[in-house]
Specification:
- There is one protein chain.
- This protein is of the alpha+beta class.
- It folds into four domains: 67 residues, 2-Layer Sandwich (Phenylalanyl-tRNA Synthetase, Chain B, domain 1), CATH 3.30.56.10; 194 residues, Phenylalanyl-trna Synthetase, Chain B, domain 3 (Phenylalanyl-tRNA Synthetase, Chain B, domain 3), CATH 3.50.40; 72 residues, Phenylalanyl-tRNA Synthetase, Chain B, domain 1 (2-Layer Sandwich); 187 residues, BirA Bifunctional Protein, domain 2, CATH 3.30.930.10.
- Helices cover 29% and strands 31% of the residues.
- It has 16 helices and 27 strands.
- The strands form six sheets. Strands 4, 5, 6, 7, 10, 11, 12, 13, 14 and 15 form a ten-stranded mixed beta sheet that branches.
- Strand 17 and strand 18 form a beta hairpin.
- Helix 1 crosses helix 3 and helix 4 packs antiparallel against helix 7.
Length: 551
């Protein structure tokens, strides 16, 4: 999750009050922000990945102001008929623009705006592949602006931070941003360009902006753009940037821009709201485990920045602000209620728990997991913990497998688009990262995976598994079998092996593992071709067992 650093005095001038460090520690967790450091007049916190509106001091201050004062904060949205034109960039076809006026900036404000832009680039924009963002001094631009393609050798402008004019192709090869992101467009015959009506180049998206139109502390009006391959993401980026920058505006004035496309379509940005949602207080009470009445729900949602439209005995209807792109259902509103109330307070006022039928005890699966951990540590293995989230490349494609996966509908990062179906990819990643640090590697993991299961009510089931990986220049399947025999002796299991085949493993050196006559998993040598794809230099033996089958 993004780590954000803001100056305490900058946050306080938004709130118009001083904050003690104790107040900071108490308030930020209510916004799912984890405070990492409070020193030197700086506040460093980890922002939740689904709240990009909190990636800068402007959004953090806005959220805290609502939380503390329940003060309604609306933007002054203006339609002046501003236009932009998208003349067609086939491989990055989407473009949207917005304007913010009456700005009061200083060096810290400019720094926060640029930091927000880069954090959005690294997360939601997928390192500028899915979308990119530009911010310009509008008083240096002649509207309307045009998004088009240009010849890379005959089109010139001075890139941000450079002293001379360069061709688009030179920008890709000679600037830091060009070398970092040029791969996105370097194979194109023509490069994308945003240019104003007088011929001044604003930027070559998604690479770099023009130095001539850069934002400074003297800037009073800004033009914001986002271009990319996904309309929703592009609109979200313009909206988040515009609403954050508008916190620096004396009038909170945001001006719509209509972008006309070559096929006759119109894209208006920024977004007015995230939509209207209704939450039933009975459903909220059931989900949160404490009584939620309409008044409490309305007050809590208002404190979280939502605009309350109506309140009845059973439901509260709110308009979600445009920057809250994390809200997609009433469940998200219920979470906002819980955060506004506070989880500690919820614990004090929780509904009566059902009567206990027996004294508390460790779940059998947890007990088995602990016992197995002790055995592996006793054998000299090091325990690792990998993420449940993964991606199809790591889970299947590297191994030449096509096993079904539980995929995420709205992933925020390319690396985390599905749930892991087995532990092996994570163990191999640990081996790859540490192969230069140790001649021999012996690691294990006890963790959950999610397997697609059509017979399940939800279409999937979770399993607790243990897996281990051995790697050295001399490692073979025999070493893996010996570890399993030792594990069986320690646990009192009868362990047997039968030849099998698994995608990504050497067929003649892979076996099914039967424990007490139950097929529990596999052990095998990873195919060298798989290791080459992963960048692993030495042989690896991997074993994986399903603990649910062993209870």
């Amino acid at each position: 999750m993004p780590v954000v650093t803001v100056r305490k005095w900058d946050l306080e001038r938004f709130l118009r009050k001083e904050l003690s460090y104790g107040e900071v520690m108490g308030l930020l967790p209510k916004l799912k922000c984890e405070v990492e450091d409070l020193s030197g007049g700086l506040i460093t916190y980890e922002a939740p990945h689904d709240r990009p509106d909190l990636f800068s001091v402007e959004g953090l201050a806005r959220a805290l102001k609502s939380l503390i004062t329940c003060e309604s904060q609306y933007f002054n949205l203006v339609d002046r008929g501003l236009k932009a034109f998208n003349y067609g960039v086939p491989l990055r076809p989407i473009a949207a623009f917005g304007v913010v006026e009456d700005l009061e900036l200083d060096d810290e404000a400019v720094s926060q705006i640029m930091n927000l832009q880069e954090k959005l680039h690294a997360t939601y924009c997928r390192n500028r592949v899915k979308a990119s963002i530009g911010v310009y001094d509008l008083d240096k631009i002649a509207l309307p602006v045009n998004y088009t393609l240009a010849d890379p050798d005959s089109t010139y402008f001075t890139p941000l931070g450079e002293k001379r004019s360069m061709s688009l192709r030179e920008i890709i090869s000679e600037t830091e941003k060009g070398r970092a992101y040029g791969h996105v467009i370097s194979g194109w015959e023509k490069y994308p360009l945003i240019i104003d009506s007088s011929g001044v180049a604003l930027s070559m998206p998604p690479i770099i902006n023009s130095d001539e139109t850069k934002v400074t502390s003297e800037t009073k009006r800004v033009l914001i753009d986002s271009t990319g391959v996904d309309l929703k993401t592009v609109l979200n980026m313009v909206t988040i940037m515009a609403t954050s920058i508008a916190e620096r505006s004396s009038s909170r004035k945001i001006v719509f821009v209509d972008t006309y496309t070559s096929d006759g379509g119109v894209v208006r940005a920024p977004r007015v709201s995230q939509g209207v949602f209704s939450i039933n207080v009975r459903d909220a009470s059931s989900l949160l485990g404490f009584k939620v009445d309409p008044g409490l729900a309305a007050n809590s949602l208002s404190r979280m920045g939502h605009r309350v439209l109506s309140v009845s005995e059973s439901d509260v209807v709110v308009e979600v602000p445009p920057y809250r792109i994390d809200v997609i259902s009433w469940v998200d509103l219920a979470e906002d209620i819980a955060m506004a109330v506070g989880y500690v307070e919820i614990g004090r006022n929780a509904l009566e728990l059902p009567p206990a039928r027996h004294s508390g005890r460790v779940h059998p699966l947890e007990h088995l997991s602990r016992e197995i951990r002790h055995v592996f540590i006793g054998m000299g293995f090091m325990e690792v913990a990998n993420y449940m989230m993964s991606n199809p490349m790591a889970q299947n494609e590297v191994f030449g497998s096509k096993e079904p996966l539980v995929e995420v509908l709205n992933p925020k990062m390319d690396k985390y688009t599905c749930l892991r179906r087995w532990l092996t990819p994570g163990l191999l990643e640990v081996v790859q990262v540490n192969q230069e640090r140790a001649k021999e590697i012996a690691v294990f993991e006890v963790g959950d995976v999610v397997v697609v299961d059509s017979s399940s009510e939800t279409g999937a089931r979770s399993e607790r598994r243990v897996g281990f990986a051995l790697s050295s220049s001399e490692i073979t399947l025999t070493d893996g079998l010996a570890v399993l025999k030792s594990l069986g002796d320690a646990m009192g299991w009868a362990v047997e092996f039968r030849e099998t085949a698994i995608a990504g493993f050497i067929p003649e050196r892979t076996a099914s593992v039967f424990i007490n006559e139950v097929e529990a998993g596999f052990v095998g040598e990873v195919d060298p071709r798989t290791l080459v794809k992963l960048g692993v230099l030495k042989p690896v033996v991997v074993c994986e067992l399903c603990l649910n089958k062993l209870l």
